[in-house]
Predict the 3D structure of the following.
Amino acid sequence: MSNQNPVFIPGPTNIPDRLRLAMQVQTQDHRAPDFVNTLAPVLEGTKKVFGSASGQIITFPASGTGGWEAAVTNTLSPGDTVLVARYGMFSHRWIDLCQRHGLDVRIIECAWGSGAPADQFAKALAADTAHQIRAVLVTHNETATGVRSDISAVRKAMDASDHPAMLFVDCVSSLASMPFAFDDWGVDIAVSGSQKGFMLATGMAILCVSPKALAAIETAKLPRTFFDFKDMMNANASGGFPYTPPLQLIYGMRESLNMLFEEGLDNVYARHTRLAEGVRKATAAWGLDLVAQSPELYSDTVSAIYVPEGFDSNALTDHAFNAYGVSFGVGLGEMNGKAFRIGHLGSLTDVMVLSGLATIEMAMADLNYPIDLGSGVSAAQEYFRSGRTTPMKTAA
Ligand SMILES: Cc1ncc(COP(=O)(O)O)c(C=O)c1O
């Protein structure tokens, strides 16, 4: 029965029945003339979630990591300079990917728990009078630390020095759960995936690409075949795919968009803020600290929580899984052993989150953590009760 329990990892997320059923479709010919009717509306609807009118949606059968690779290889050449801040495991992995592609990666090292340092980007860009930096890479929501960065502040920093670099943003664990404003923030490529805010199976990298980034294709010399933007756009324009598409995921995406728009994107974001705040209230009641250094950095999709000195967060997540059949996020990289993560994104309600809080609280009590059993759940219950006058509309 334990497979009835929700997961509290920050993706892949729980798949609502409606989406599992939507993905249950028989094989169809992707070269048939009617395939365009399936694909085109999905690409159009996805733009709304990115907050873009002018962006081009490009998808690949891949995970988010494939999206990073597609962004870089379609727009840059070997030896090109990119500017990146490292403040968690996912910004680190994007850096690693760029280095393996032979890019010159200028890294701003930041404390894990902090966010994208707009002021340091501004300095680096102002000093780059020869405009060698071709792109600034930012992880919007650092899933390892539960930190959301301010992308508009990064854009302002870039504009302040009138620097022509492109802005690439990883929104793998934020899109469709927290507001994203591709056009307003002047993003050139945003990279996401199907398995988090879209509540689908893993397997589709989802990108939004600006006209400026599309123009960069013409000079970009990094090799690409599977991830070639032009091949994909040309095929999509005639209603097809350059190779076999992930048909079931395309159907899932169509239904996911229906669900998100039925709930209303603003309501989806408000629900995530509410769930996150419930988890934060519980964390405070336990007397534990978030890895995110300050409230403006708090992520609404994942909370990374330090365990007390002398405790091992891996033992906690293992115990929660073994004893109660519930998965929580382990501490990644520098946070390994020091922090656990509660994912609170996708198809979740107040009640589901309470079950997760109750579970991790039992696991902590079993392992003699200095917490009061029930304290976190009760704090979240009080928060969820407060101000509720109507039943919550959910995506589930
Ligand atoms: C912020 C962020 N970026 C990138 C990735 C990598 O995506 P994927 O595992 O889909 O390749 C993840 C995965 O969790 C992520 O959270």
